[in-house]
Amino acid sequence: MIYLWRVLVLVAVFIPIKTFNTERMGIPSDQQANRLHRLCKGVIAKDSSIRFAGIANQMGKLVEAAYREGLQPLMDRQETEHYTVQTVLRASTRETFENKIGKQRYAIAVYEKLIRATVPIAIIGHQHDKDEKQKKQQEKQDFKWFYLLISFDLGRDVMSIVEDKILPLIKQFQRDSLVA
User: What is the block-wise mean pLDDT of the chain (180 residues), using blocks of 10 residues?
Assistant: First the structure.
């Protein structure tokens, strides 16, 4: 009975959330998917300890993923998708206290077999030929949240990797999203 209640709560939480629409962002779907895939590959290339990089949308759907070459994942695709939903749900619950403690930059969890990080990513849609007032108003509407999910090998300074390598890559991705 408790499990059924959790499923119902999960459905209630996710139904009203709008998924991203790459056409509204002014980018064809295949081009946006390619950019997200390149971001995942770019994350993996940043450090040899990175096992996995994936992008999830606001609904918890894994929209893009990449694994380190030669890696045998600890979870299969279905388990990874289940983990993705749970991770996005956890991340979204942290937003409750943003007005008190500020926006979450990233979260790190250490497990017995690996370390995981979740990084919220905001992407703003295109603002073609609009005056400043229209741009600011549409910016609020076209602000889309994704989540970068990263797995690391144990024994690494994950905070430094995220701060010094991953966050700058995300900032560049966000700047490129404004001009793409």
Answer: 41 32 45 86 97 93 93 92 90 83 92 95 62 55 80 96 96 76
For residue 22, which of 176, 149, 142 has the smallest C-alpha distance? 142
Rg over CA atoms, the chain: 17
Strands (E), 68-135: 107-110, 115-124
Closest CA to 60 of 20, 24, 33: 20
The CATH number linked to 68 is 3.30.450.30
The structural domain count of the chain equals 1
Q: Is 3 among the domain residues?
A: no
| Domain with 145 in it | 20-179
Contact 53, 162 (CB under 8 A): no
